Amino acid sequence: DAKTTQPNSMESNEEEPVHLPCNHSTISGTDYIHWYRQLPSQGPEYVIHGLTSNVNNRMASLAIAEDRKSSTLILHRATLRDAAVYYCILRGQGAQKLVFGQGTRLTINP
Amino acid sequence: DTGVSQDPRHKITKRGQNVTFRCDPISEHNRLYWYRQTLGQGPEFLTYFQNEAQLEKSRLLSDRFSAERPKGSFSTLEIQRTEQGDSAMYLCASSLAPLFRGSGRVGNEQFFGPGTRLTVL
Fold first, then answer.
1. Test the B interface: residue of A56, A88, A90, A98 with most B CBs within 10 Å
2. How far is A59 from A82, CA to CA, in rounded Å?
3. Residue from B10, B45, B50 whose CB has the most chain A CBs within 10 Å, to mutate
4. Residue-wise pLDDT tens digits, B24-56
5. Do A43 and B113 touch (CB under 8 A)?
6. Which of B42, B110, B113 lies at the smallest CB-CB distance from A102?
7. N or C: which end of chain A has fewer CB within 10 A?
8. What does B31-90 look like in DSSP terms, one character per residue?
């Protein structure tokens, strides 16, 4: 399984944008980049995924580098409810399992 | 609430006892997954089913672990002769295979339940 590298923790303020980086230098051409988050005492929750182009949904945006060796999850306006552990995951085409790393623990200050 | 339910939410047992957990996925989802999460770590994949067929098992799933999905709906995960190292959160997730997009949900995402926290004394 291709590996991802994320900072252990990040901190931001409420109502400000948050950029969560992920490095995946060994990504293969068919690997999708997935982001999940896990709020305290809950199971993980899907956030967004992409292959090559930047993606937007109601929760976040995903910016993918042109060489696909890194990506950034963008929360446009953080709220206290966004405090969670964010996982960047590479998922091969047709692969079913998600391989979680340590993730980034995001703290949001009021 | 994602629509995936797990029972029980908490289980305390003594070493050597057998335990069984249940997962009820979102009703139209044909894929079901089990993961295990220990404190401070990300979830680790254990196994997954498509309908009633168990298609992949992790090496983490020792002989003491067995999972079933007899009618392609709910699933059970049994741990026999529990050990203290089995203490963890057991997470279930479900998803829709791409051929069945009728529910309107994205077929690629996994929806997780709240988990069953197992403590082995």
1. A98
2. 10
3. B45
4. 999 989 999 999 999 999 999 999 999 999 999
5. yes
6. B42
7. C
8. EEEEEEE-TTS--EEEEEEETTEEEEE-TTS-TTEEEE-TTSS-EEEEESS--GGG-EEE
